[in-house]
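>> received
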Amino acid sequence: MKKLAVLFICALLLSACSPKKAEKSMVVYYSDDDGIEELATKIADHTDSELFRIVPKKDYSSLNEKIDNKKELSAEEIKDMQSTSLLLEQSVPDDWDECDTIYIGFPVSSVMAAPAPVALFLSQNDLKNKTFIPFTIGTQDALDHARESLTFNGARKGWKDGKAFPENYTDLEIEEWVHAENEK
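>> returned
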């Protein structure tokens, strides 16, 4: 019995001394030539993260711009949008399973919902045991509404508030934000 107790204590001590799995992060972003790509790259540099761009197979940026600017779409453009399934060039990033923290960036607009490619990306990946930290360039209110649409009003767990950067953000702002997120 003593031998069993000693073996048990040794096993506990060895497991306590074993190295913890290092957290790995990834910066995932969707961009329409709106500054998000540059911001995502800087966040990846500050967090030593992999970088993954969400790329739709078909480019709808000109239609998105028309919608954002409240311009009328032609019947042909509407038909094209309705008949075309949104597909991504790559749905699941390499090393997705190894990442614990996902910084996710996307443009926000007057629609106050995240762009469809971002929602599609999330629907095609296993989101369990991951922490999501959204970021954008714009207002915090717009980011909050977009986050709510992506989390189904909080039903999808693991999301932090994130950060809306001003258009004239600085590297110091990014550094301070990343440091604050890592302290939480």
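>> Strands lie at 25-29, 50-53, 101-105, 131-137, 163-165.
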